[in-house]
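Technical annex, item 7. During the second reporting period the consortium partners agreed on a shared format for inverse folding records so that results from different sites could be compared directly. Each record opens with the tokenized structure and is followed by the designed sequence. A conforming record, contributed by the partner at site C, is shown below for reference.
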């Protein structure tokens, strides 16, 4: 009997289970970060469109009588059009989910949402180019075959015996009559359950125990085809994947692997040198260690890609990856939170399904070519970029690293029509000298988040005509917004139509106490137009918050209870937004001690803990400061020396660069005699941030990180001027 087989009800019964889990009922809610559950049958689509148009007719007399409502109502046609698009998108995803639920579990179409979508595309558009990476091109059919090979290699590590011809020999090690479900249950994460049998230990990392069904395999890889094939293969094999940020080393890396309960680590050969000090700890954790490519590898690390290439490319049974519940965890994406070290956000099969609708919501079509230069260990790159592209069956140009100087030439060469950005990328582009390639391009749409209004205007004016679609969302969140009107500076709309389909609220928030403001009854209060408010969204079976791998304390503060009525539960985004009198949402700030730099969240507590490990430092206060011409806030650390030590800038730089990812390195240092605190002995972060880093106004010694030199240097007036002029790279 095969090793990796299901234990749940027959496939016909599973169809009913998954229909219930998907919430195909009235009253569902959500978006690509909520739930594609509020759907309508196909025969009702026309009547729904008519119902959506009815309010417009009813409001016409009101428009004539009360013209002062025009600022809100002038956008009603756009709101209606987007609502219809969202409902059509949900209907399409619902149809796919029902088809997969009814499919033969022995076939690839009966697998998880990622597996069956790729199998579907390989049948419908086999020759269409899915991926372009450098000089390499892969069709959807090739992507399906490559991921099948990867799935078979991982199943062999589980103990599955495919036989000499690559077919299931029917022999395994699970024991007679036992039917193991690789993806069964969230409780398996990190459990370390033993799995008897197989040659996985010999092929995958020396003395490590064999992989067990439902295990988590961490990927520490740059963006490239191999990342995708291994991710897809793990999904097909019913194994969970953990996307590890490539800059993590030492303590933060080990923390991430422990928190998600990783049983194996696949790393890029080019990372082996920098990971050498971590190898003893990784081996002590009992991890399978694979390298994704050839080379001279340390003992116990084998070439996974060689094992993959030795497998046949036939499909694997769908039941291996089909979840017991659509809300089961299938993926971990690490996100920095206010608690310090990265947290492993649980990504469900439902969220994978939702993200297939992202680009359809954005108005992207299957003949578009999408340019993606974002890290795949981020939700923006992997789920919105890759899975979103698969949702419409389009082509993605994947870059391992963004190059502002090469961008427009790439767009010309590959006839790119859609660019997925974070705000920093757009700023890099507008700061480039003019080139011939930036004219005559085919880019019609830029989709992303974090674009500042000033950069937005410069970007469109220089590279237009093109449309910018700014979005907002969180990896672990159940709410997201899309600025489908293209209003500059906005991240979405709070129209009654949008909030009916994708519910959320802005509530009053006290930045001093860090808590929502409640009325005498204990309920939260909605904000007025122009008033910053905390963005919250209702939690339900259709739009859940799954939290993080580990203890429940990691999600502390993420859920608010009794928000508007007793017993209700809302997800707390931790972000302050403003809704203006026209219903447009604009990002205001992040609550707590977390700030954003280079498209990444930086937790001040994590940075401070690294600094405090240095014996010559007594106190550290880390905060974010605004730098002219840069998105987000750059890290700055106020330091107090421990007597009788002196400041060792070389040791400090070495320590920081070894223990923190580059985006978390403080760009500025401020040496003080003592740290400013409040009357309750809390560090004064807001005041310090407002004081900035101008050497002409501060008497304390200041230092700036010069990345070209690789050192902290005194922040002189000349260097300060060079920084403001854009001549000093931080």
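Designed sequence (site C submission):
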């Amino acid at each position: 009997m095969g090793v990796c087989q299901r234990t749940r009800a027959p496939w016909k019964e599973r169809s009913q289970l998954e229909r219930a889990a998907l919430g195909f009922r009235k009253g569902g809610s959500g978006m690509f970060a909520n739930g594609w559950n509020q759907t309508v049958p196909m025969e009702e689509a026309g009547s729904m469109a008519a119902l959506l148009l009815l309010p417009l007719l009813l409001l016409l007399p009101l428009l004539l009588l009360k013209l002062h409502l025009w600022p809100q109502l002038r956008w009603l046609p756009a709101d209606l059009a987007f609502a219809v698009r969202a409902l059509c998108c949900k209907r399409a995803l619902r149809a796919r989910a029902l088809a997969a639920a009814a499919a033969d579990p022995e076939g690839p179409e009966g697998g998880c949402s990622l597996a069956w979508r790729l199998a579907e595309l390989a049948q419908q558009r086999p020759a269409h180019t899915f991926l372009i990476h450098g000089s390499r091109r892969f069709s959807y059919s090739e992507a399906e075959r490559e991921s099948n090979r990867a799935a078979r290699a991982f199943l062999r590590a589980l103990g599955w015996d495919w036989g000499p011809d690559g077919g299931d020999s029917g022999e395994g090690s699970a024991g007679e009559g036992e039917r193991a479900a690789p993806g069964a249950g969230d409780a398996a994460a990190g459990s370390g359950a033993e799995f008897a049998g197989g040659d996985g230990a010999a092929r995958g990392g020396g003395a490590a125990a064999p992989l067990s069904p439902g295990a988590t395999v961490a990927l520490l890889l740059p963006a490239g085809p191999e990342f995708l094939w291994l991710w897809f293969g793990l999904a097909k094999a019913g194994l969970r994947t953990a996307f590890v940020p490539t800059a993590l080393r030492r303590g933060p890396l080990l923390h991430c692997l422990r928190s998600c309960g990783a049983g194996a680590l696949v790393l890029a050969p080019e990372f082996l040198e920098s990971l050498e000090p971590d190898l003893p700890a990784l081996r002590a954790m009992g991890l399978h260690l694979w390298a994704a490519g050839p080379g001279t590898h340390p003992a116990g690390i084998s070439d996974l890609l060689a094992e993959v290439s030795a497998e046949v490319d036939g499909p694997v049974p769908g039941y291996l990856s089909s979840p017991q519940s659509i809300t089961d965890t299938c993926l971990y994406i690490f996100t920095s939170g206010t608690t310090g070290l990265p947290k492993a956000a649980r990504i469900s099969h439902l969220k994978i399904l939702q993200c297939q609708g992202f680009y359809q919501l954005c108005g992207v079509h299957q003949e578009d070519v999408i340019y993606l230069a974002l890290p795949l260990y981020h939700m923006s790159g992997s789920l919105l970029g890759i899975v979103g592209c698969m949702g419409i069956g389009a082509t993605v140009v994947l870059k391992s690293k963004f190059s502002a100087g090469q961008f427009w030439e790439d767009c010309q060469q590959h006839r790119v029509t859609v660019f997925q950005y974070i705000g920093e990328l757009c700023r890099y582009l507008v700061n480039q000298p003019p080139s011939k390639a930036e004219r005559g391009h085919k880019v019609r749409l830029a989709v992303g988040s974090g674009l500042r209004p000033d950069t937005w205007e410069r970007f469109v004016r220089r590279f237009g005509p093109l449309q910018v679609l700014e979005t907002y969302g969180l990896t672990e969140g159940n709410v997201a917004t899309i600025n489908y009107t293209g209003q500059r500076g906005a991240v979405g709309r709070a129209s009654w139509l949008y909030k009916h389909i994708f519910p959320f609220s802005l509530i009053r928030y006290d930045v001093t106490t860090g808590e929502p403001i409640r009325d005498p009854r204990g309920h939260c209060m909605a904000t007025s137009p122009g008033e910053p408010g905390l963005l919250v969204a209702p939690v339900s079976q259709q739009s859940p918050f799954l939290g993080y791998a580990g203890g429940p304390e990691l999600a502390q503060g993420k859920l608010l209870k009794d928000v508007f009525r007793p017993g209700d539960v809302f997800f707390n985004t931790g972000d302050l937004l403003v809704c203006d009198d026209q219903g447009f949402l604009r990002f205001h700030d992040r609550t707590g001690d977390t700030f954003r730099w280079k498209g990444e969240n930086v937790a001040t507590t994590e940075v401070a803990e690294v600094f405090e490990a240095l014996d010559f430092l007594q106190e550290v206060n880390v905060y974010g400061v605004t730098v002219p011409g840069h998105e987000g806030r750059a890290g700055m650390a106020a330091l107090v020396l421990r007597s009788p030590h002196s400041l060792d800038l070389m040791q400090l730089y070495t320590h920081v660069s070894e223990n923190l990812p580059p985006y978390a390195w403080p760009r500025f240092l401020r040496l003080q005699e003592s740290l400013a605190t409040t009357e309750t002995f809390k560090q004064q972060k807001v005041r310090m941030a407002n004081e900035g880093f101008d050497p002409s106004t501060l008497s304390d010694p200041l230092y700036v990180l010069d990345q070209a030199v690789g050192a902290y240097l005194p922040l002189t007036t000349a260097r300060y001027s060079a920084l403001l002029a854009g001549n000093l790279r931080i």
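Residues 349-588 form a domain with the Rossmann fold fold (CATH 3.40.50.12780). The two ends are 59 Å apart (CA to CA). All partners now use this format for quarterly exchanges.
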